[in-house]
Structure formats: C-alpha cells, structure tokens
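Sequence in, structure out.
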Amino acid sequence: LYNVCKETNPNTLFVSDLTDIKVEDFFSNETIGICGATSTPMWLMADIKEKLLNL
C-alpha cells in the first residue's frame, strides 16, 4: 500500500506508530491523507489523525 501511495504522491510517509510522526515532515502540506491496510487497527489511524490535528 505504501508503494502505491508513494507512486501517486512522493511526499508519502510510512508511519507505524505515533513516534514516527515528526512535526517538520508536515509544515509544507495543507492536506494530509491517512490510509491503512486491513490489518491496521482503526484506533491507530484515529490516534494518528488526532496527533496530526494537534501539530
């Protein structure tokens, strides 16, 4: 899934947990998409969304 996203948007980042999120990676982006495979828990994507909203 990461490779498909990276082909579409070269700014794609792989995040496996909240510690992978670095504020400096997101300064120039107005829009951020979050996606996960079927094995990605919804609570993890929700936690990542919340952290991004609070950067």
